[in-house]
Amino acid sequence: MHIQMLKSKIHRAVVTGAEVDYVGSITVDPELFELAGMVEYEKVQIADVETGSRLETYIIAGEPGKGEICLNGAAAKLVNVGDHVIIMSYADFTPEEAKTHKPRVVFVDDNNKLARFTRYEKAGRLYDLEVEK
Q1: Which of 14, 17, 52, 79 could form a disulfide with 70 if both were Cys (CB 3.0 to 4.6 A apart)?
Q2: Domains of the chain by range and CATH?
Q3: Given 8, 41, 58, 89, which residue is catalytic?
């Protein structure tokens, strides 16, 4: 048996674009998704803080360091530029792995630049991590 749990998230990123006439996906600055432990083409869940809408799609890499967060295709109709979104990835864990797993959390500022890099501890507490240079 496996348990699906939060693996990592990028918290309250600002939507910089919404491109309806695109095949699909979410374009994300690779500096952010790599720090979160996500990979290109990974399935993610997106929650829009302003509208409450949720959707699933996959990540494609934008230009590194630009802070791009762009919803593409039909998903572009569920967000507005300037909305805050939470980008979440999940993974399957054995019950033993689940006991010690601590999800990565990447907090960003209003320009989608790293503000804080943490992991969850028990009871939802956070502890800071060092960013490898």
Answers
A1: 17
A2: 3-122 (2.40.40.20)
A3: 58
